[in-house]
Amino acid sequence: DAGVIQSPRHEVTEMGQEVTLRCKPISGHNSLFWYRQTMMRGLELLIYFNNNVPIDDSGMPEDRFSAKMPNASFSTLKIQPSEPRDSAVYFCASSPGGARTGELFFGEGSRLTVL
Amino acid sequence: DAKTTQPTSMDCAEGRAANLPCNHSTISGNEYVYWYRQIHSQGPQYIIHGLKNNETNEMASLIITEDRKSSTLILPHATLRDTAVYYCIVRVADNAGNMLTFGGGTRLMVKP
């Protein structure tokens, strides 16, 4: 089975540029999560979707960040404009829900470096 | 969510059992204990979860005390590939908000 697929795996960009991270969840999973990981702050939940609907975006750091889930098989996390402090590894995860709520399957992450 | 406390780091000899403790003294009756691990440069990986009974799967065993204020994750025969950060999380397992909040975790080093 294909796991959660994220792209790009690595992104290096300059401050002020737009960054788009992509995620394909596991087929049949009804919840999708975006996390960010840095050495200083650890793993932070940014936003999660349930059945393609954003449920809680309280973790999104500021208006420069936006996330969409246009269908059950695709989600994007966009940063515009990017800043050096956005440098981190961004993880996408999906969950089957139901009796397996809490079992999150993570992708391999997108490592973002903003110069 | 109930707060968890874990040792920052632990060592274990290869082939021996690794016992990773977690304190969650403020856990509520409807909160589950989840364990995840994160191997270097990879995304976190689900290991096991439980409510009040001990649980076992192909990866590990979870022992929850009777008062549910602490738990122990047991890797019965640790290998070098088990070197990772292990996260203990407590969370209500509902559909309305199945968010998991990760703390600092325990860095387990399995040594030859």
Report on this model:
The complex is a heterodimer of chains A (115) and B (112). Chain A has strands at residues 5-7, 10-13, 19-24, 31-38, 42-50, 53-56, 65-71, 74-79, 88-95, 105-106, 110-114. In chain A, strands 2, 4, 5, 6, 9, 10 and 11 form a 7-stranded mixed beta sheet that branches. In chain A, strands 1-3-8-7 form a 4-stranded antiparallel beta sheet, with no helix packed on it. In chain A, a hairpin with a 2-residue loop joins β7 and β8. By secondary structure, chain A is mostly beta strands. With 112 residues, chain B is mostly beta strands. Chain B contains no helices and 9 strands. Chain B has strands at 9-13, 18-23, 31-38, 45-50, 55-56, 61-64, 70-75, 84-92, 106-111. Chain B has a 5-stranded mixed beta sheet with strand order 1-9-8-3-4, with no helix packed on it. A 4-stranded antiparallel beta sheet of chain B has the order 2-7-6-5, with no helix packed on it. The model of chain B has no long low-confidence stretch (mean pLDDT 92). Classes of the chains: A mainly beta (115), B mainly beta (112). Chains A and B meet through β4, β5, β9 and β10 of A and β3 and β4 of B.
Query: SSE order of chain B in H/E notation?
Result: EEEEEEEEE
Q: What characterizes the major β-sheet of chain B?
A: 5 strands, mixed
Interface with most residues = A-B, 25 and 22 residues
Mean pLDDT of chain A: 94
Uncertain ranges of chain B: none
Helicity range of chain A: under 10%
The geometry of chain B reads as globular
The percentage of residues in β strands of chain A lies in over 45%
User: Strand pairing plus helix content of chain B: what structural class?
Assistant: mainly beta
Q: What radius of gyration of chain B results from the CA coordinates?
A: 13 Å
H-E string of chain A? EEEEEEEEEEE
Number of strands of chain A: 11
Q: Main sheet of chain A, how many strands, which sense, barrel?
A: 7 strands, mixed
| Helix proportion range of chain B | under 10%
Number of strands of chain B: 9
